[in-house]
Specification:
single chain, about 400 residues, mainly alpha, Amino acid/polyamine transporter I
């Protein structure tokens, strides 16, 4: 969770919520918690890879499983676009699009040869990201420009709808929490360990995000944050320690590339799995005879992401990704609703509330993201029934 999302989502979210941005962060964290508990509940019943693509098929029928998988794929394609653009905006904003497109093709090539992000690399990236965020807090507050009165400077044009929209955009920054829920077969006493891990991870992430974003808000007004492609950098540059901003840019670049590498691999393998089940065109299930990777799916994913990067911006990509992924989790909550009392770990109302919460936040997102998402989900539905 603590990755590139915090570097990219703060700007678009501040445009929607203004001085109420911190409230939106808390709402996004609560939504992530509800979804994580639902995923943990389902994973304990179906301890197999595939997430809601599997849970939907098992509990609700093939169509809903397909729709979840479709939502995951199109949502993560948009996430890839957001991460590529985040990398480019922090690396060299004046050449953002060509750099973003180049990064997509470079990491697609890395995945093609079966090079994986190891646990050591992951820990190193998290260390770099946390160091960069620590620099943001130190430089911004110590730079002399912090003004606590900016934290709750809520203008009249920001209403409850704006806060919900910001929560949906900030939800993007919490991506990754559900992976904890799928480790039921790999940890000791999963019934107690996984819920504790989810609460600890989400609580820590929310706390870090609140500290970083409140620091940025004290140093720069939310309108300026919303207009910046590198919002945390301008927070650092607002004070005497402006010369530390290159370190923040470097941390953001490492974070974005690390997430992009994982996303490209993950979405291509989900595409491969759906193709193997005849839910996507069969040619996408090809495996390279030497490198043993789904090379066709990886190439197609890389091309699609590059095309998205060439026309979209960060805000649009984040909004669309959040919409698709929230629909994915709405289906997960619907699947969890059908569990029997013996299969259930937590009260049934939690997944019911989670379903409603996902739907409300999803349809509070920017209009273009919602319309684009509805059109693509409709296209997926047409493909599913045509293919059958």
């Amino acid at each position: 969770m603590i990755g590139a999302g915090i570097f990219s989502a703060a700007g678009p979210a501040s445009a929607a919520a203004g001085g109420a941005l911190l409230v939106a962060v808390v709402i996004a964290g609560c939504l992530a918690l509800l979804n994580a508990l639902t995923m943990a509940q389902l994973a304990s019943v179906y301890p197999e890879s595939g997430g809601t693509y599997i849970y939907g098929r098992k509990r609700l029928g093939n169509y809903w499983g397909f729709l979840a998988g479709w939502g995951f794929v199109i949502g993560k394609l948009a996430s890839c676009s957001a991460m590529a653009l985040t990398f480019a905006n922090y690396a060299a904003p004046e050449f953002a699009r060509p750099i973003a497109i180049s990064s997509v093709f470079a990491l697609t090539l890395v995945n093609f040869f079966g090079i994986k992000k190891t646990a050591l690399v992951t820990k190193t990236l998290v260390t770099i990201v946390l160091s960069a965020l620590a620099i943001v807090v130190f430089a911004a507050i110590g730079g002399g420009g912090a003004d606590p009165s900016r934290l709750w400077h809520i203008t009249e044009d920001v209403g409850f709808f704006g806060i919900l929209q910001a929560a949906g955009l900030m939800f993007f920054a919490f991506a990754g929490y559900a992976r904890i829920a799928t480790l039921g077969e790999e940890v000791i006493d999963p019934k107690n360990t996984i819920p504790k891990a989810i609460l600890t991870a989400l609580g820590t992430t929310v706390l870090i995000y609140l500290i970083v974003i409140s620091t940025a808000m004290m140093c720069v007004d939310t309108k300026t944050l919303s207009l910046s492609t590198a919002p945390l950098v301008i927070a650092v540059e607002s004070g005497h320690f402006f010369w530390l901003s290159p370190l923040v840019r470097i941390g953001a670049c490492f974070a974005a590339l690390g997430v992009l590498l994982s996303l490209l691999a993950g979405v291509s393998r989900t595409t491969f799995a759906m193709a193997a089940n005849n839910d996507l065109p069969k040619f996408l299930s090809a495996v390279h005879p030497i490198h043993k990777v789904p090379h066709v799916a990886e190439l197609v994913v890389g091309i699609i992401v590059a095309l998205i990067v060439s026309v979209a911006d960060v805000r649009t990509s984040i909004g669309f990704s959040s919409f698709a992924v929230l629909i994915y989790y709405a289906i997960a909550n619907a699947a969890a609703w059908t569990l029997s009392p013996k299969e259930r770990k937590w009260p049934k109302w939690l997944c019911g509330f989670g379903f409603i919460f996902c739907a409300v936040i999803a349809f509070s997102l920017p209009f273009a993201s919602v319309v684009g998402g509805v059109i693509l989900f409709a296209a997926g539905t047409l493909y599913f029934f045509w293919n059958k």
